[in-house]
Each structure stands twice: as structure tokens, then as C-alpha cells.
Amino acid sequence: MTIRVLVCEDQELVRTGYVAAFDSQPDMVVVGEAADGPAAVEAVARLRPDVVVMDIHLPLLDGIEATRRIAGPGVPDAPKVLVVTTFNVDEYVYRALRAGAGGFLLKDTPLAELIQGVRTVTRGDSLLSPAVTRTLIGRFAGRIRPGETGHARPLDVLAPRELEVLRLMAGGLANAEIAERMTISVQTVKTYVSRIFAKLDLRDRVQAVVLAYRSGLMDGEA
After folding, report:
1. What residue segments make up the domains of the chain, in order of their start?
2. What pTM, to 2 d.p., does this model score?
3. Cβ-Cβ contacts under 8 Å for 110 (sequence gap 6 or more)
4. 127 close to 120: Cβ distance less than 8 angstroms
5. Most CB contacts within 10 A, which of 21, 114, 171, 205?
6. Which residue ranges does the record assign to the Response regulatory domain (predicted)?
7. If pLDDT is split at 50, 70 and 90, which confidence band does 23 have?
8. Residue 122 contacts residue 102 (beta carbons within 8 Å)
9. CATH says 3-127 is which class?
10. Coil vs helix vs strand at 52
11. Among 3-7, 49-53, 133-137, 151-155, which is the least confidently predicted range?
12. How far apart are alpha carbons 144 and 94 in whole angstroms?
């Protein structure tokens, strides 16, 4: 499978670097570029990429609203959106995830990690490294109000072991770490994660992490 990538970044030098890095990979092809929000939305509709690498700060229409239009609730066949951010704008991260982003990386992430991140989000796996999850989610978790609407299914549809997997996932643990903590196999963890997604009508791991905080599951954990 060749991953079709759309790069949305207003800084030409950064955008050119991303394009060159992705196009150099045997399993990726850059199908288009966009330097502002409206161009990003139009390009997605026209080019149908698999993954959109989205800068938060875009002119005319910011990356959060562009993400909502590209991959928000109710958008059919939405591509994965990888938001690129920096620590000094982390107050926007939660909004980006709620808008439909599949995850985020820091803007100073090495290109090799960014490339791997595109592959990871394409698979539907967690894009967030445990370190990034613990740092960024922990910093804005206090702003997530338990009981906020946005997901139709409450956590009580989960079995106790599924609930524990969700809690550990939201705590920033990777599948292998969850398996070790719960003394089960990695494949069993993956099965639990799939069931959680299905039961809660979630698209990916990032949505599960945000829901765990928003539901109050992580009270006292952040």
C-alpha cells in the first residue's frame, strides 16, 4: 500500500522539507500541498489523501477548523489528520483532537519520527508516544470537563478489563507496557483496544484517550 500524503503548512521551507522527506519513502507519495486552511480543505476533497499533515497555525482558516471540516464528526471516509504543534500552543491540542485529529507530534520532531508517525496513524494505531501523551495530555487534562457531550456511548458499556486497558492507554502506556502491567499478551491487548473502539464508537486511540479524560476516568491520574 502506498500512503497518499497531503502536506498543509504555511512556511514554505518547512513544507518543502516535509514533501522531500515523505516523497523519499518507498511507501509514500505526496499528492498535494496547501499553504492555508481553505486550500487544505479543497485539496482533501479533490485529492482524497490517506493522511493529512496539518499545521495548527494556517492563514485564512486555522488548522483546527480545517481539521474539523476534513475529519470532524459526521465526515464520511475522512482521512487521518496528523496535527503538528509546539509546546507553546498546547492549549490548542485538545481542541484539535476534538476536531477529529488522529494525533499530534511536536513541531521539532525529527523527520524520521514524523515519517514513522504517518505510517502509524495510517494503521490506526497510537501516534502518541507515551512521553508525549503524559506530558501534553497531563498539561491540559484539567481543562477537560467530565460529562462533556460528544460521544453517545458511556463507559459503562465496557467490561472491567476493557476499562482497565482504556485507563492505562490514557495514562500513556503503549500496548507492550499494558500487556506487561496486566500480565497478558500484546495480541490480547490489541483485541481489547479493538473492542473499546467498537463499543464506544471511536475511530482511533487518540479519541479514546481524550474520552477517558472527559468521562472522569482519569480523575486524580493527571
Report:
1. 3-127, 148-214
2. 0.70
3. none
4. yes
5. 205
6. 4-122
7. very high
8. no
9. alpha beta
10. strand
11. 133-137
12. 8
Residues 120, 111: contact at Cβ < 8 Å? no
In the chain, the largest separation of any two C-alpha atoms, in whole Å, equals 50
Cell numbers of 10, please?
504555511
- The 10 Å CB-count burial string (b at 16+, else e) for 126-157 is bbbbeebbeebbeebbeebeeeeeebeeebee
Name the fold adopted by 148-214.
Arc Repressor Mutant, subunit A (1.10.10)
160-170 helix and 205-214 helix, angle to the nearest 10 degrees: 100
- Of the pLDDT bands very low, low, confident and very high (cuts 50, 70, 90), residue 156 is confident
Count Cβ atoms below 10 Å from residue 186 Cβ, excluding itself: 14
pLDDT of residue 90: 55
Cell 463499543 belongs to residue: 199
Q: Give the separation between CA 199 and CA 188, rounded to whole angstroms.
A: 16
What pLDDT, on a 0 to 100 scale, did the predictor assign at position 222? 46
